[in-house]
């Protein structure tokens, strides 16, 4: 029997939403490892990650989660990537 190229899988259902990922991580934390799980959770939820923003600090800002400058960067990135949702990597007890 001849070997044939595998056909790409057809997607059934709506297009995934475009999502921006956000994490506040202490210096020295491996961002790739930390965001890897968030990427997979996003895809499972039907969100395609289109960009990532990382704030390096010991703990999230109590008022805005990120600092003022990072918030402005986040707003610009959200618009530049036509993001539809923001996914935040944070614990529930924060």
Q: What number is the mean pLDDT?
A: 87
Hey, roughly how much beta strand do the residues contain?
A: 25-35%
> Can you tell me the residue ranges where pLDDT is under 50 for at least 5 consecutive residues?
none
The class by helix and strand makeup works out as alpha/beta
Strand order of the largest sheet: 2-1-3
Report the span from N to C terminus.
Answer: 59 Å
Q: Strand count, sense and closure of the main sheet?
A: 3 strands, parallel
Task: Spell the H/E element sequence.
Answer: EHEHE
Radius of gyration using CA atoms only: 17 Å
Helical content (DSSP H or I, runs of 4+): 25-40%
Shape from CA axes? globular
Please give the count of helices.
2
Please tally the β strands and state the result.
Answer: 3
């Amino acid at each position: 029997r001849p070997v044939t190229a595998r056909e790409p899988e057809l997607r059934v259902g709506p297009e995934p939403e475009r999502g921006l990922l956000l994490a506040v991580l202490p210096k020295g934390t491996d961002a790739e490892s930390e965001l890897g799980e968030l990427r997979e959770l996003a895809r499972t939820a039907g969100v395609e990650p289109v960009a990532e923003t990382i704030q390096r600090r010991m703990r999230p800002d109590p008022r805005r989660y990120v600092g003022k400058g990072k918030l402005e960067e986040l707003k610009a990135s959200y618009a530049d990537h036509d993001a539809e949702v923001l996914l935040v990597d944070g614990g529930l007890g924060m």
